[in-house]
């Protein structure tokens, strides 16, 4: 009797993802050094660093550094938004427009520069140490984010090979330059993807703080509360089907509290800005947003300083930026459309009718066992194989259908990208894509959407499919070209997304 060929151990896949993430960061570093050596920066103002308004943390102008050339190289590499993050870490929030940058990354930079890297201040100077701290934090965070994406993909897709392909695509994604720079993308990806992994694993007590921290890294992290809303909606519906009013109220109250917790860091930061800018001023000297019925600082800054708003970017002169963002937006739209066309009942019923056979069946998302053990037969089979291999253990009692947790074994007959478990991620991607296209500076879409898991799941699906395989190769070419272009333009202070 021939033995079935076993798939590689998951630890091997995870190790490969870890190595690929490290390799991708080294590749980005090599490219940045190459382009900085061959080309001169478009803007040389990156090294300018006036004293802090408080004059309490700025280094003395006469400070003699042991390694000034290294200090100059690091400081000149701090470009674009990195200038704001480093300045905030050094001096705090000095100006109104700086409140557009969420505080998690500056807090981490400041902490690392004052502890682990504090001995390097006499060597390369305080600002260079702050920059170095930012680079170390973001590159490490990216590596962990890649590992968490693999774990999340295995859990949701139930296909280790597809999870591996998706994770490798993330390691070399088109917005890679931002994950190796002093931007908030890496921390956001880590806490967003990590939080989702804990959520689908049923660890709500861990998932909610992680998702809250994603909102402390980037403002769009608060949209992750949508996953909690989706979970609560399905749990409440199942409680209604059981005709349990108490359970329904309990589910709704718990979901509301978790959403509030996710919003809390963002709202606390808005209150902090209101306290610093608005309080203590007479009404005639207050900023306009201070007197609004809902004084939301973030919306005012985005609109007033950056011109962000619904359809405000729809101008003929912005056509090149729309073209720059068109690949990532096209991939996002295609992933939504393909899922909706392939699984219309799942998509348009929001997952309440995941099976044509069970019209009243509502799948329960993000509950312990729902995803990890959706195929109970497969799980038990693997456990039995391990027992037989060891030989010295007695077979454990198999779970019956009644003893098993709420499963989708009958209705979720598909694994991979078209699984019903992918639906909430698809809906979340749709919200992000619509926001990027209609509201934001559209060129930001490349990095704004780059941490969305279903993009990589869909790309992995295309690569594997014999019908769409050529599109998979095109996606790899797109990622490679944007890595090269981004490392060339961004590192030399030229505009790029």
From TrEMBL:
This protein's record includes keyword Membrane: yes
Principal location class: endoplasmic reticulum
Membrane topology value: Multi-pass membrane protein
Species whose genome carries this gene: Trema orientale
Gene Ontology cellular-component annotations: endoplasmic reticulum membrane; mannosyltransferase complex
Pfam families: Mannosyl_trans2 (PF04188)
Annotated GO biological process: GPI anchor biosynthetic process
Pathway terms, separated by semicolons: Glycolipid biosynthesis; glycosylphosphatidylinositol-anchor biosynthesis
Protein's UniProt keywords contain Glycosyltransferase: yes
Cellular compartment(s): Endoplasmic reticulum membrane
Listed name of the protein: GPI mannosyltransferase 2
GO MF, one annotated term: GPI mannosyltransferase activity
């Amino acid at each position: 009797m021939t033995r079935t060929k076993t798939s590689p151990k998951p630890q091997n896949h995870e190790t490969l993802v870890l190595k690929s993430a490290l390799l991708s960061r080294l590749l980005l570093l090599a490219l940045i050094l190459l382009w900085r050596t061959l080309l001169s920066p478009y803007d040389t103002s990156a090294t300018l660093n006036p004293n802090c308004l408080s004059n309490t943390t700025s280094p003395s102008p006469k400070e003699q550094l042991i390694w000034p050339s290294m200090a100059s190289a690091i400081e000149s590499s701090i470009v674009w938004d990195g200038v704001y993050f480093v300045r905030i870490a050094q001096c705090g929030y000095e100006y109104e427009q700086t409140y557009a940058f969420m505080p998690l990354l500056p807090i981490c930079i400041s902490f690392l520069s004052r502890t682990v890297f504090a001995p390097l201040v006499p060597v390369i100077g305080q600002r260079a140490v702050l920059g170095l701290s930012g680079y170390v934090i973001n590159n490490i965070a990216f590596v962990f984010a890649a590992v968490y994406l693999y774990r999340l993909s295995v859990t949701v897709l139930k296909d280790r090979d597809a999870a591996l392909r998706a994770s490798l695509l993330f390691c070399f994604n088109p917005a890679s330059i931002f994950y190796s720079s002093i931007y908030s993308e890496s921390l956001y990806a880590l806490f967003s993807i990590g939080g989702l992994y804990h959520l689908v694993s049923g660890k709500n007590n861990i998932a909610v703080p992680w998702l809250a921290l994603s909102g402390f890294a980037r403002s769009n992290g608060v949209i992750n509360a949508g996953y909690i809303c989706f979970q609560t909606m399905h749990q409440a519906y199942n409680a209604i089907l059981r005709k349990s009013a108490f359970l329904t109220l309990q589910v709704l109250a718990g979901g509301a509290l978790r959403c509030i917790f996710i919003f809390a860091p963002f709202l606390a930061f808005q209150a902090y800005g209101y306290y610093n800018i608005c309080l203590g001023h007479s009404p005639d000297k207050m900023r306009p947003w201070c007197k609004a019925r809902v004084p939301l600082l973030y919306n005012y800054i985005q609109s007033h300083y950056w011109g962000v708003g619904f359809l405000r970017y729809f101008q003929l002169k912005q056509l090149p930026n729309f073209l720059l963002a068109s690949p990532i937006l096209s991939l996002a739209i295609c992933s939504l459309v393909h899922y909706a066309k392939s699984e219309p009942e799942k998509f348009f019923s929001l997952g309440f009718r995941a099976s044509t056979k069970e019209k009243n069946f509502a799948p329960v998302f993000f509950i312990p066992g729902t995803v990890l053990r959706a195929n109970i037969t497969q799980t038990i089979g693997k456990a039995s194989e391990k027992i037989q291999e060891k030989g010295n253990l007695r077979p454990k009692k198999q779970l019956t259908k009644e003893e098993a947790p709420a499963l989708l074994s009958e209705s979720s007959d598909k694994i991979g990208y078209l699984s019903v478990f992918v639906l909430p991620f698809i809906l979340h991607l749709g919200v992000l894509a619509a926001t990027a296209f209609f509201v934001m500076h559209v060129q930001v879409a490349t990095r704004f959407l780059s941490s969305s898991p279903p993009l990589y799941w869909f790309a992995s699906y295309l690569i594997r499919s014999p019908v769409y395989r050529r599109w998979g190769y095109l996606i790899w070419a797109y990622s490679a070209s944007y890595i090269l272009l981004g490392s060339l333009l961004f590192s030399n202070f030229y505009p790029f997304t």
